[in-house]
Write a structure and sequence with these properties.
about 180 residues; alpha+beta; Cathepsin D, subunit A, domain 1; 2 domains; 7-stranded mixed sheet; 3 helices; elongated
Length: about 180
């Protein structure tokens, strides 16, 4: 009888050990997924929390780092909604997806045609009440709601970039907003 009891204990111990091993693998896989996802996000958007400064003459300045693909991507907000901006000097306006436009409470305006990398498309005009990157803030900005866009990345086009000074040295881009800029 004692032999049978030991065999039962051994089987239970083995099952517990296998369960612990599986749980360890699941936890390790989850941890690695979280770590590498965070690393990939940093590579895409090295400016998740861009720091702003202000000079004595009230010039607001934000310095952005280039991402791995050579683009300037930065976190900010549109009408108080957190977004990710991709600076695009080839875009006339701020281009935003319908989902983000809805979330930010943007009104759909008149339809117009726009030339994109994918050809001519129909976009809808809109006005953005407030757009912010760190301490740089603009009001009443021209935008376009682009039905072909998806996701949380917004193209930061010339309707914003014409209101601020920007200069690139090496892999950094400096944005400057002077006091006379539309606030």
């Amino acid at each position: 009888m004692s032999k049978r009891f030991n065999k039962s204990q051994n089987t239970a111990g083995r099952s517990l050990g296998q369960g612990m091993l599986i749980a360890s693998f699941v936890l390790a896989l989850g941890g690695m997924t979280f770590f590498f996802d965070s690393q990939l996000e940093r590579q895409y958007n090295p400016n998740r929390n861009p720091r702003g400064s202000e000079t004595g003459s009230r010039v607001k300045e934000v310095i952005l780092e280039q991402n791995r693909q050579g683009h300037y991507v930065a976190s900010g907000s549109v009408n108080g909604v957190d977004v990710v901006f991709l600076l695009d000097t080839g875009a006339t306006d701020v281009a935003i997806s319908p989902e983000l436009a809805n979330e930010a409470g943007l009104q759909v305006g008149y339809a117009t045609q726009a030339m994109t990398a994918n050809g001519i498309i129909t976009v809808y005009s809109t006005k953005i009440d407030s757009l912010t990157i760190s301490n740089i803030s603009l009001r009443n900005v021209d935008g376009s709601i682009n039905p072909g866009m998806a996701g949380s990345t917004i193209l930061l086009g010339m309707s914003v970039l014409k209101e601020i000074e920007f200069s690139q040295i090496g892999s950094t881009l400096t944005l400057r907003q002077y006091p006379e800029t539309r606030l």
